[in-house]
Amino acid sequence: MQQSPSELPSPDELAQQHSDQLKAEIRQQIDAAGGAIDFARFMEMALYQPGLGYYSAGARKFGAGGDFITAPELSPLFSHCLARQCQQVLAEIGFGDILEFGAGTGVMASEVLLELERLDSLPGQYFILELSPDLKQRQQQTIEQRAPHLLERLCWLDGLPEAGFQGVILANEVVDAMPVHLIQFKEDALLERFVGHNGRDFVWQDRALVSAELQQRINALTAELDDEVFCPGYLTEINLAQSAWINSLAALLEKGVALIIDYGFPQHEYYHTDRTTGTLMCHYRHRAHGDPLILPGLQDITAHVDFTALAQAAHEADMDVLGYTSQAQFLLAAGLAELLAEQDQADTRAYMEVTQQVKKLTLPNEMGELFKVLAIGRNFSDDLKGFLLQDRRGRL
Questions:
Q1: What's the CA gap between 76 and 154, in Å, rounded?
Q2: What's the CATH fold of domain 5-64+178-240+270-302?
Q3: Which residue in 156, 191, 196, 232 has a CA-CA distance of 20 to 30 Å to 379?
Q4: Are 239 and 306 in contact (CB under 8 A)?
Q5: pLDDT tens figures, 244-302
Q6: Residues 7, 28: Cα–Cα separation, whole Å
């Protein structure tokens, strides 16, 4: 449920000082650009500005004490199901590594490795690409607590590994945090939403669209969708960064599979007449709201994922689209029911807690349907077990 920004709790003094420092840097960027920057640049700075951005600084982000809870934080069974899918891929290619993008608290890495150890299928190495020094330290602490004997298999990276990677790439809630451009359709024009400031607060500025790359993407969308979708006033997001990211995966992956898990829709559902204000969403202390211009550095800013665009980018990068389904169907196909059955039912309270976690992961009105899993890969021919119950590639 969305809240009004006026209903949000106020940050403490230190948090406010942190945000004010980032605001000053963004204002400088705006002034240097002549009075406004496109929203994608604003979102990039708000989330990733070194030392100050939401994901670059030290504020607590994940779990009950943060701003949101991800599936790995909710239940270890999520990671155990992922591990079973990893097991299949590693077995098929004979040997390989795992690369995780943005590992959060390190909970998923810990539980994936522990389950793979239980299955006697540990990877050669488990790489974590993490740009935040704070999160890297937290990940190390988590793994030291949960799986200290497996620390030697962990390797933290500041950039992508060299080409020739073989194994599994994991990206859980990565694409939704990539900077997006905001586009508004008018009767006789296309506008791009920019951000300026009035000396104190950030303000919206709509300008005529001039980017050839954005225009090309919009032309492709309007050719694919019904004319009535983009009615006057329609506001939506275009994620240009995801294509470059897919290209980077294609450049490094020699053999194996990339699993992309996130909330979103195929193209025909993403750009829909019922979604006239887009999907942009902010999260602050477990409260969702729609104003990305406030609390820079203190709140998450996300947009839902266009999975059709991801699949098209993979195809254009000479990668295979190997599966697409809902999170619920993926987890069930990967063994969630069997993992639940292994829980100790004699401990009624603990078992009820686990069943509640499973419901949140799988029910349509929780995470089960909104979250999707897309598998792309190269030189991998086996049918992935996570998509055996239901494969929705035909809907992309």
A1: 19
A2: Rossmann fold (3.40.50)
A3: 156
A4: yes
A5: 999 999 999 999 999 999 999 999 999 999 999 999 999 998 889 999 999 999 999 99
A6: 29
